[in-house]
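Intended use. Records like the one below are meant for learning the mapping from a protein sequence to its folded structure. Do not use them to infer anything beyond what is encoded.
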Amino acid sequence: MRRPRGTRDLFGPELESVRKVMHVMNEIFKRYGYVEVETPTFEHLELFTKKSGASVVNQIYAFQDKSGRWLALRPELTAPVVRFYLERLKSFPKPLKLFYFGNCFRYEEPQAGRYRQFLQSGAEIIGSSRPEADAEVIALVDEVAKELGLRGYDLRIGNVGLLREILSRAGVKGEEQDPVMRAIDAHDQAKLEEELDKRGVGEEYKKLLKAVAGLRGGVEVLDKAEELLSDLTKARAALRRLRAVLRLLELCGVDGYRVDLGIARGLEYYTDVVFELYVDGVQVAGGGRYDELIELLGGEPCPAVGVGFGVDRIAQAMLRQGVEIEERQLDCMVLPSSGEMLDECLKIARDLRRAGLSVDVDLMGRSLRKAIAYADARRARYAVIVGARDLASGKVTLRNMTTGEQELVPREELANKLKEVQAT
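Structure written out for the chain above:
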């Protein structure tokens, strides 16, 4: 029996790296004042088709339950969090700052680093339209990358409002923009040309759209964008907002970003400032402002901005880069010198665990020599050898598994002794 296609079994360093990412994110989210929420693994299908249309069903796991209701395994977590907000959190003081972790599911062709089941985390600020909110979420992304020790990461920031305004002036509005934006997001020039031709976009606007989408670099590229967009009032307003966010990022200590006005984001609900985080050329996080999604899902108009992280991809990047992952080492193995000592070993292990130590006991009835070899294979720091003669005098033998040195330690002092050496 094999695991389902597009899924993974995790063990050892792979799982430790995932847990490391989750731990660091959890600490940073709380440090920034976010509160954790959790939503169901499956939702009503309509939650995901409302914006993306019926075609999205081909990309997700959708099914009918025994009562005939159409449900879907969540393909992402922003929409479920917004649904939760609309049901239960609307009356809370604004802005509402939420974070989450959860498995998501998409029926995609499995590729390197892309799975049908994947772990996502994220953070949302609901209720603030100010650039400070955008800047905080981007600063949070930068801090996660730094604290995890990711090297050479690429933080890109843009504004989809510029591209959408060009399309609007060219007569392409509403949902008609979405296929064009997806083509830009995929960097598929042939598809982009096809979608623009299908919508009758003239050469002038084609040229303008491609020129703006190709602008990348430092803050100075915004000057070039202003020249290109001088006749588009809403686009100039979007540029002013982007400048305000970038200025605030400096105050937040974020300086290693680059402006990329070709960011279109694959999800259709983004409306303004957007950003993406890449490590070794692989996108591991992305987000932006989605001021229309809450209204689309049935709520009163309410601004919001957020980010989603691919936990699995970040963990894989850490392994590729050789980022040190602190794995808790087994403090000791408690080993009986003979079968008669097993009961005492279990009592000693119980007491050491209650003292907060990581402890294992040989459960295979091995000879002492083989049990010590097993403790070494488990990378235990120490072995506690329990013998009848030593125990009669109230002592056990503590063996340093690195040096092989041994000493007799009073049983009642064993926990403190192990904590002392643990701290060194």
